[in-house]
Write a structure and sequence with these properties.
The complex is a heterodimer.
Chain A (H helix, E strand, L loop, with lengths): L2 H12 L22 H15 L10 H4 L2 H17 L1
Helix pairs in contact in A: 1-4
Chain B lengths: L5 E9 L3 E4 L4 E13 L4 E4 L4 E3 L3 E4 L2 E4 L4 E2 L4 E3 L19 E3 L4 E2 L4 E2 L4 E2 L4 E2 L4 E2 L18 H4 L15 H17 L4 E2 L4 E2 L3 E5 L2 E4 L4 E2 L6 E5 L4 E4 L4 E2 L4 E4 L2 E4 L4 E2 L4 E3 L1 E2 L2 E2 L2 E3 L4 E2 L4 E2 L4 E2 L4 E2 L4 E2 L7 E4 L4 E4 H4 L8
Parallel strand pairs in B: 1-3, 2-4, 3-5, 3-6, 4-7, 5-8, 6-9, 7-10, 8-11, 9-12, 10-13, 11-14, 12-15, 16-19, 17-20, 18-21, 19-22, 20-23, 21-24, 22-25, 23-26, 24-27, 25-30, 26-31, 27-32, 30-33, 31-34, 32-35, 34-36
Antiparallel strand pairs in B: 28-29, 36-37
The chains are: A mainly alpha, B mainly beta.
C-alpha cells in the first residue's frame, strides 16, 4: 500500500465520510469539513506512530497537511531528512 | 417545573430563555453555585431524577437537553455555543449546535460537553474529559453575519462592557456601576481608563498589577481573581476580557497582552514545584473555559487554547492548542478556508 493509500485508509476508518470515492489526493480535508481540528491532531498522531516521525508545532500548516497528497510529500520529506541525519 | 425539586445552596438562573425541570430534580449547590443560563429564546430541559452538583454550569443559546436520571458532577460545563469563532471577529457569536445528554448518563467532575455533542443514553463521561460535537458542528463553521450593526453588537453581554450603551438606561446604569466598582476594586493597581467589573473580583496586590484601559471582568457565579505576590508583576493589556472564575496568580511575572479573552475558570500561574517561570500571553489570544496555562509558557499572538486544555509548552502564534498536555495545530488547519479572513 502506498503512503497515500495508508493515510486515506486511516481517514476513511476514523472519520465520517459519506462517500470515500470523493476523497482524492488533492481534496482539502479541512475545507470539505472531512476532518476538524481534533481530527487533524489524530491524523498527526497517526503519522508520528506509523512513520516514526516527530511533527513540530510549526510544521502543522496547511502547506504540509491540508490534503492527502501534501501529507504524503511531507512524510516522505521527514523520513528522508531523518535518514540523512 | 416538576414536582418536589430539591435545592441546596445558590443557583444562578440567567438569561431570558426557558428552563424546564422534571420531577425530583436535585441540585446540590452547597459547596459552589450552579448556573443555569438560557439565553433569549433558548431552552434548557432537565429530566426527572437528575442530580447536578455544585460549580456546574449549563449554558444554552438554543437548546440543551439533559435526560432522566443523569448525574452531572461538580464543576462540569455543558454548553451549546462556543461564543467566539476561532478566527475573524471574535466578538461575533457563532451559531449554536444543540446538545443532548441521553438518559442515565453520568458526567464526571470538570468534564466539558461542547456544542453539538449528543451522548447516547447510559454514557459515562470520565472526569475532566472534553466531549465535542461532530466535525461539522458549530466549532468550524464561520460566524453567521447576523446583519446587526456594530452598535447593536456592542450590546451583547460581554461587549456591553466595552461600549457606551445609548438609549438603554438600565444597561447604562449597570455599566456605570461596573466602572465604579472597577475603580474601587483596582484602586491599588496601575490602571487605564474605563475598566469594567461586572461582578466580584478578588484582587490581592502585594506587587505590581497593571491593567490596560477598557479591560473587562465579567461577573458570574464564581469570582474572578488576580493575585500578585511580593516583588511580582502582573500585567494585563488594554481591552482584554476575563470571564467569571478566571484566576491569574503571579509570583514573578505574568503578562497578558491586548484584546485577550480568558474564559470561565481559566487558571494561569507562574509557580511550579520547580520554581517560578514567567508566563507570557501575547495579544489577541483566546483561552477557553477551564484551561490551565502552566508556568514558563508563552502563547503566541492570535492563538486559541481550547476548553479544558492543559498547556505545558509554548504555543506558536496563530495556533490552536488542545488536549492534556496540549498539542498545537496551525489555525490554518483548524478553520475552513471560507471562514478565514486572512
Amino acid at each position: 500500500m502506498t503512503l497515500q493509500q495508508r493515510v486515506k485508509q486511516f481517514i476513511l476508518d476514523n472519520f465520517y465520510l459519506s462517500d470515500g470515492a470523493s476523497l482524492g489526493d488533492d481534496t482539502s480535508l479541512i475545507a470539505e469539513g472531512l476532518v476538524d481540528s481534533t481530527g487533524m491532531l489524530e491524523v498527526i498522531g497517526f503519522l508520528e506512530s506509523e512513520y516514526g516521525i516527530a511533527v513540530r508545532d510549526d510544521e502543522t500548516t496547511p502547506e504540509n497537511l491540508e490534503t492527502i497528497g501534501r501529507i504524503a510529500r511531507f512524510v516522505e520529506r521527514k523520513t528522508r531528512d531523518a535518514a540523512a541525519s | 417545573m416538576g414536582d418536589s425539586p430539591a435545592v441546596t445552596g445558590r443557583i444562578w438562573i440567567r438569561g431570558g430563555g426557558r428552563i424546564r425541570l422534571g420531577d425530583r430534580v436535585r441540585i446540590d449547590a452547597g459547596a459552589a453555585p450552579v448556573e443555569l443560563h438560557a439565553g433569549p429564546g433558548a431552552e434548557i430541559v432537565i429530566g426527572d431524577d437528575v442530580h447536578i452538583s455544585g460549580g456546574t454550569s449549563v449554558e444554552a443559546q438554543e437548546s440543551v437537553t439533559i435526560g432522566d436520571r443523569c448525574r452531572i458532577e461538580a464543576f462540569s460545563k455543558i454548553l451549546d455555543n462556543h461564543f467566539h469563532p476561532l478566527q475573524g471577529d471574535r466578538r461575533v457569536k457563532p451559531p449554536s449546535a444543540p446538545v443532548v445528554v441521553g438518559a442515565d448518563t453520568s458526567v464526571g467532575s470538570r468534564a466539558i460537553i461542547l456544542p453539538g455533542a449528543r451522548l447516547p443514553p447510559g454514557t459515562v463521561v470520565r472526569p475532566g474529559v472534553v466531549v465535542r460535537g461532530p466535525a461539522s458542528a458549530a466549532a468550524n463553521r464561520p460566524a453567521e453575519d447576523d446583519g446587526l450593526s456594530s452598535e447593536r453588537r456592542a450590546t451583547s453581554p460581554i461587549l456591553r462592557a466595552l461600549e457606551v450603551v445609548r438609549g438603554d438606561p438600565i444597561g447604562a446604569t449597570r455599566q456605570a456601576l461596573a466602572i465604579l466598582r472597577a475603580r474601587f476594586l483596582f484602586r491599588g493597581c496601575e490602571r487605564g481608563a474605563r475598566l469594567y467589573a461586572g461582578g466580584r473580583v478578588r484582587v490581592v496586590n502585594h506587587g505590581r498589577i497593571l491593567i490596560g484601559e477598557r479591560s473587562a471582568f465579567v461577573g458570574g457565579m464564581i469570582p474572578t481573581e488576580l493575585i500578585c505576590h511580593r516583588g511580582a508583576t502582573l500585567e494585563v493589556g488594554e481591552r482584554s476580557v476575563f470571564n467569571y472564575g478566571a484566576s491569574v496568580e503571579a509570583y514573578g511575572s505574568v503578562r497578558i497582552g491586548r484584546r485577550c479573552m480568558l474564559g470561565s475558570s481559566v487558571r494561569i500561574s507562574d509557580l511550579s514545584p520547580q520554581g517560578i517561570a514567567p508566563v507570557v500571553i501575547l495579544d489577541d489570544v483566546w483561552i477557553a473555559h477551564g484551561a490551565t496555562v502552566e508556568p514558563g509558557v508563552t502563547i503566541g499572538e492570535g492563538s486559541v487554547v481550547s476548553a479544558g486544555s492543559v498547556v505545558r509548552r509554548d504555543v506558536p502564534p496563530r495556533s490552536l492548542a488542545a488536549g492534556n498536555p496540549a498539542r498545537c495545530l496551525s489555525l490554518g488547519l483548524a478553520v475552513p478556508r471560507a471562514a478565514r479572513t486572512d
